[in-house]
Amino acid sequence: MVQRQLPKWQELAPLLRTKPFDPDPVRRRLAKALTIPELRRLALRRTPRSVFDYTDGAAEAEISLRRARAAFRSVEFQPSILHDVSDLSTATPMLGVDSALPFAFAPTGFTRMMQTQGESAVVRVAGRRGIPYALSTMGTTSIEDVAAASPEARKWFQLYVWRDRSAGEDLMARARAAGYEALVLTVDVPVAGARLRDARNGFSIPPALTLKTIADGATHPSWWIDLLTTPPLQFASLESWDGTIADLLDALFDPTMTMADLEWIRSQWDGPLVIKGIQTLDDARRVADAGADAIILSNHGGRQLDRAPVPLRLVPDTREAVGDRTEVWVDTGILSGADVVAAIALGAHATLVGRAYLYGLMAGGERGVERAVDILEAEVRRTMKLLGVNDIASLGPQHVRLP
């Protein structure tokens, strides 16, 4: 028989540990998010559906995006035991300069629509955390204002080739004058992908006030108040536009661009050149032969060609194909630090994240972006230690299997 008795107060007191109340609602909210998917759920609650869907969605049936996530989920790690991992480094060379973490912030358009602090908030976090940030041609903060927001950050400029080549030349000149380190040329948008969520939502810049958006605004009043009481939302690198986003892309971007145009780019840009949107081994070889300093294996986050190749699966063969001629980076589907580690173990020199930090931005502005980096860094470090690895360069195919 178990002898029972009423507990004494002095026995209960040590067990009653009340958590101090945090009066800051943003900090309280973000502290509850322990993973990027949890930040995503916060973003969904705080952002109008059309804006969330622009970030979250992909092209057509969204098969490319689902396949990319499925590839990361199928990764099997191969840990090695009994290694000293007490002193761990996540420093990763990107274009010959160390990034403090093995990822950079990918270029994303319309960022101030997600949350009005926008690109300036993202670049400030990048500067504090020692990682690069790529500003999109379709950004909603100017090249110069982003540079001023964080002079210490490593800044890259992402360029789409426009039908009006003089406009592209002007953007490159402005980026060079503002101290941007590298040019990221995106090559997978001869036309806009069919982003059906955006079409169904009537997504536009600035957002149109329709019955649907007004009804949605009633459930997201803080987002609308923030939008309407801050500077007007507009593209920073082009004049105002009244049509749909797809029509804008089709009107601006040049479908006649070929490999020969890389010579024109090189004549205008004398810094490092990164080519984003590589999806086949042949194209990887072609741009490496043309002198690209880095290539990004990417299907645009699944937002262009549906059923496109899964970038993660291209990594090992691409590394073998290009050798040491150019750095190989990868994006699309990365939502955890374990995903980052898996990509590097398979052969990528580094990775880029986009949706991950945008979910943070929507969930809590600049502090939300910082929270996203906190989550990713903790996951990277924990995964490395559990694999028995204490620096990024030691990661290799012996640590990972991709069925």
UniProtKB/TrEMBL annotation:
The keyword Oxidoreductase applies. Glyoxylate binds at Y54, Y160, R195, H300, R303. Transmembrane segments: none annotated. Residues 28-403 form the FMN hydroxy acid dehydrogenase domain. The keyword Oxidoreductase applies. FMN binds at P107, T108, G109, S136, Q158, T186, K276, S298, G354, R355. Its cofactor is FMN. It comes from Beutenbergia cavernae (strain ATCC BAA-8 / DSM 12333 / CCUG 43141 / JCM 11478 / NBRC 16432 / NCIMB 13614 / HKI 0122). This is L-lactate dehydrogenase (Cytochrome). GO terms for molecular function: FMN binding; L-lactate dehydrogenase (cytochrome) activity. Its EC number is 1.1.2.3. The active site is at H300 (proton acceptor). It holds the Pfam family FMN_dh. Keywords: Flavoprotein, FMN, Oxidoreductase. It is an enzyme of class 1 (oxidoreductase). Belongs to the FMN-dependent alpha-hydroxy acid dehydrogenase family.
